[in-house]
Amino acid sequence: MANSKNWPLSTFGRQLAQGSGIGDLMDDLGHALAQGGDNLLMLGGGQPAYLPEVDLVWRQRCEQIVRQASDLRAVVGNYEPPLGSTVFRESIARLLRSRYGWDLTLENVAITAGGQTAFFYLFNAFNGDFGVQPSKRVLFPLVPEYIGYANQSVTGDMFCSVRPHLDLIGDHEFKYRVDFDALSLASTAAPICVPRTTNPTGNVLTDEEIDRLHELATQADVPLMVDQAYGAPFPDVIFPEIKPRWDEQMILTLSLSKLGLPGTRTAAVIACPKIIQAIGSMNSIVGLANSNLGQAIVQPLLDSGEICRLTRDHIRPFYQKKSQFAQACLHHCFDSSLPYRVHVSEGAFFLWLWFKDLPIHSQELYERLKRRGVLVVPGHHFFFGLGSAGEDQSSQWQHAGECLRVSFAMPDETIQAGMEIIASEVKKAYAQA
Ligand SMILES: Cc1ncc(COP(=O)(O)O)c(C=O)c1O
User: Fold this and answer.
1) Can the peptide bond before residue 134 be classed as cis, meaning omega within 30 degrees of 0?
2) How far is the C-alpha of 354 from the C-alpha of 365, rounded, in Å?
3) Could you tell me the residue ranges of all domains in the chain?
């Protein structure tokens, strides 16, 4: 059909309706999963793996719901309150109280359609135009940062981010660390935001780093938002020992997606009651209510401790093993004389690769790999917000065009075959210099 209408778009329309890195990524991922093609090595998206022991629990819960007419009616036939199911919110609060001793009730919990939606609300509510100049911007203390945040502003320029320290470890590893000297909480800074575990790098901020960020947030009296999509208490894809933290200075998000339920689009925001009420208001305006299914599947498993058991016995060990397997493949496939490095893998589903002085940009490497049937995510999408308002300096940091994100959630054969092709394309690219 001819693309005949060319109606002008508002600022909102221009910001959200004209494509994005995350849009391309989800499109690649959705089509690859729908086709299920053997010819495509899908190492791109944040799709969780299908774990038989975990899938079985979801199936059993769905069967229980279907067998009980009143449960099924409640799940598919009812609008729930905009904040989510009261019983589910109570169960989340109870779990966090009993595990971490946090002083929480259901008044501290709001449900949203995934963590992605939660951040859309939070970023737009706390940043942008406050009627004074300059507008406020979210501070990301450490880039590269989750690609899904990059286009979430409805007003435009909303983020500022800070280059990290790069610690080189041995010949082929490295780690980003927050550069506290470079973090200045200017009056234009609104919330501070960090994921724990970080997507794309698999970095886990230490307790000390979180404490220092908390101190900065307290001094400036801005929220410290911690995105726990891969974090504690579920799915807890965090390999080092850490101590999760919450108090009223903080806003946490948890999600059911990386447990293996991304299709239910369910997340929980943990914050002080005023923020929770604001989230409920935004839910009702944007979508009336949330989807009930994920909450119904998971609620009894929160109370029984089954979610924590699945996480401890299956989910975390599975991804830790996959990470080790992917790293072994990487070091096996890459010529050790090449200047490749991998970020220390401390959690999430990805290896983050850095090819120092690569003669081609990561976008070109992505295109070449795609032509050979390997889908990854080029690194430059994860470097946003660098530079002062209005001038994005990410293109001036060569490092941003030298990185790739590679998922290790897929079957071993896919990882192995994909890594071989990545190694051969990188070798070719260095050779052509
Ligand atoms: C760091 C991070 N935050 C948030 C999300 C959003 O996840 P969801 O909306 O499925 O909860 C993702 C998804 O990959 C993520 O990696």
Assistant:
1) yes
2) 12
3) 20-53+310-428, 55-304
Q: Give me the residues of the chain with pLDDT under 70, please.
A: 1-3, 33, 35-38, 132-134, 185-189, 387-395
How long is the chain?
A: 433
Does residue 46's CB lie within 6 angstroms of at least one atom of ligand 1? yes
Q: Is the CB of 407 under 6 A from ligand 1?
A: no
Peptide bond into 195 cis (omega under 30): no
CATH of domain 20-53+310-428: 3.90.1150.10
Write the residue with the smallest CA distance to atom 16 of ligand 1. 199
Judge if the beta carbon of residue 148 lies within 6 A of ligand 1: yes
CA 21 – CA 167 distance, rounded (Å): 28
pTM above threshold 0.85: yes
Q: Ligand 1 centroid to 254 CA: how many Å?
A: 9
* C-alpha 228 to ligand 1 mean position (Å): 9
Pick from 226, 257, 382, 407 the residue to mutate for probing ligand 1's pocket: most ligand atoms within 8 Å of its CB. Answer: 257
- Record the tokens describing residue 223, joined without a space: 């929220």
The CATH number assigned to the domain with range 55-304 reads 3.40.640.10
Residues 46-84 have pLDDT tens digits of: 889 999 999 999 999 999 999 999 999 999 999 999 999
Ligand 1 touching residue 280 (CB < 6 A): no
**220/245 Cα distance (integer angstroms):** 19
- Rounded percentage of the chain residues whose pLDDT exceeds 70: 94
CA distance 184 to 135: 16
Beta-bridge partners for 140 = 161
- What separation in Å is there between the alpha carbon of 230 and the centre of ligand 1? 8
**Measured from the CA of 113, which atom of ligand 1 is nearest?**
9
